[in-house]
Sequence to fold (149 residues):
Amino acid sequence: MSGLSDDQLAEHRDAFSLFDRKGDGKIALDQLGDVLRALGQNPKTADVKKIASEVDPRGAKRLTFEDFVPILNGVRKKNTQGTMEEFIEGLKVFDREGNGTVSSAELRHVLTSLGEKLTDEEVDQLLVGMEDSQGQVQYEEFVKTIMAG
Fold:
């Protein structure tokens, strides 16, 4: 059915059923992102919206687990998380002095305006304890901390 083991399918079915509010073995299409995230995926909001619109442009359809598994597999295949080295390399561009630091203001700007944009509150949480007295962030340590969860 999916390239998943029977145990994985059973676990995924259990997680899926937690989102079944009507008890009919289906989830609302607007819960798709939540279910994917509950199963350890991290799709972008835009990707979830695109998938949902492909499944049902009106957004009224309810998904069965059997409809959901191919979607999950597609997201799993697409989900290629960057490596720590890739993130560090990306932040080096902002290290003007070559000393392993970036300004917290510049980091905040990047995190709130590029890619999957974070809110100011989310950036505040990420930067807690990361800034030195000059408002600089050791970006290698920052990436390690974020990726460690």
Observations:
- The beta strands are 26-28, 62-64, 101-103, 136-138.
- The first strand starts at residue 26 and ends at 28.
